[in-house]
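We modelled the chain as a single entity of 229 amino acids. Its sequence is:
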Amino acid sequence: MKVTRYPNNPIIAPKDIAPYLQDYEVIGVFNAGVMHYGDEVLLLLRVAERPVNPDPNFGLSPFFDLASSTMGINRVEKGMPGYNFSDSRGIGTPDGPPLTSISYLRIARSKDGVHFTIDDQPALFPENQYEIYGIEDCRITQIDDTYYINYSAVSNLGITTCLASTKDFASIRREGVIFQPDSKNIVIFPEKINGKYYALHRPSSSSFGKPSMWIAESPDLLCWGTTGS
């Protein structure tokens, strides 16, 4: 099979997307889930936005504030002991790096798979304790007439895999947590095998062990048990 790169790449860049949040800027669009729906190709984009920073002496870390159900911003003065600002993606602390951007999912639609229009509103935006630092890197699996979207939810609890579902990509319902921290890169098989659902997942311990892929099984897409690596 011959594969040819589209000569006008990238097909979507940060400059093509208007920020959803006021006084934020889009700095990344990547790791999209892809699906045919009707006569369209849909990309469920991971969009990363960061607050516009008027003062370079401070680092800014956005988060979803559960108490107010609005976005909040932590301001950290550069040069403070115990903080590391060398990586623009996060502010290094003893407890881990708060991210300097927040990600969410947004739909791009195309008739030809090359030219896309992008929805004004997010498809999924942070709203609970697992998502306070963002929603990332979704994958979509169609089973019968339902599209299942698994995604990485990021918080101070770790990277948790959550599941959502839709039949029309207009209304998306959260189903809940399906893999505990830290596991990501979930791929759900599109058919049952011997009456069970199966998925590949990648535990990502930062303390010990080597990166590996595992297989898990479930009777209902919600409760998963690992069967081996």
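As a brief sanity check on the tokenised model: The CA atoms of residues 164 and 189 lie 15 Å apart. The first strand starts at residue 24 and ends at 37.
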